[in-house]
Design a protein that fits this description.
single chain, mainly alpha, 14 helices
Length: 272
């Protein structure tokens, strides 16, 4: 809201160090991005320092304004690797001790082994475990951690409906537009992504995928998937779209070549 902008500027204008924890959270929020650009300029003009953090490189986020990307590139852009298992274990023990959370050694080791994530996400996991066990007065043990991992982090099986919904949200169109026979590029490309993801993330026969997305038969799905994969090999932004949709579905990165071969073999065996 316009009334919030002056308050935001007044609150942060005089800071010496500006830290933006997650730049990606500002995607599609153009007013907030404009305010951040102005704030960065003000802080730097006074000799202050700015630290911007993001899960992705600034130029890899299509919904971040070019002016903000330019400010990022005007400084030092450095990739920071996720902590290894030993580092995660130290962080977990630190979080538990500093917050007086009763986390057992076995539970901390299991979390460190099973959650190869950022420090912020490790802290969130510890806080969730603490909240779930609060009032019981018991140590958080490995059994509690295993239940947490199964309930909170295990990806739910993808379905055609889930995939269509995730793709529609990502591209800002409706599920109906993905499932119709429209040949408008705004609909064709999302449909290709949806069919590729359906092929890779579900065990649905290609014929069922074709029927769900309004295609004639399984060969149209194969053609669409092959065409999109060829385009992605030369177009980084398409690969970024795919990675982001997969993450929204809890599926992580793209399938490895080995997984693709195994999946294709399973499909052939199923169709015999």
């Amino acid at each position: 809201a316009e009334s919030v902008v002056p308050e935001f500027q007044k609150k942060h204008r005089d800071c010496d160090v500006l830290v933006c924890e997650d730049l990606a959270s500002l995607e599609n929020r153009y007013v907030s991005q404009q305010q951040l650009v102005s704030l960065i300029d003000d802080v730097l003009a006074r000799g202050g320092e700015c630290l911007l953090k993001s899960r992705e490189a600034p130029g890899a986020m299509p919904q971040i304004h070019a002016r903000l990307v330019k400010r990022c590139h005007g400084g030092i852009c450095a990739p920071v690797s996720l902590p290894g298992r030993a580092g995660r274990l130290r962080l977990l023990n630190h979080f538990a001790q500093s917050r007086q959370i009763p986390l057992s050694d076995s539970a901390a080791k299991l979390l460190a082994a099973e959650l190869p994530v950022s420090p912020r996400e490790l802290l969130a996991a510890v806080n969730q475990l603490d909240a779930a066990g609060r009032g019981r007065g018991r140590m958080i043990d490995s059994d509690a951690v295993r239940r947490f991992l199964d309930d909170e982090t295990k990806p739910k099986p993808a379905t055609l409906a889930k995939i269509a919904g995730a793709v529609a949200r990502h591209f800002g169109i409706s599920v109906a537009e993905i499932r119709t026979g429209s040949r408008a590029r705004d609909h064709v490309l999302p449909r290709q992504f949806a069919m590729l993801l359906a092929r890779d993330l579900t065990r649905e026969p290609l014929g069922s995928i074709a029927d769900y997305f309004g295609r004639r038969n399984h060969s149209t799905v194969i053609h669409a998937c092959n065409r999109l994969e060829r385009q992605m090999s030369d177009t980084p932004v398409l690969r970024q779209h795919l990675a982001r949709i997969r993450r929204s579905l809890g599926a992580g990165g793209a399938l490895s070549c080995r997984n693709r071969v195994e999946k294709r073999s399973a499909e052939r065996a199923e169709n015999r």
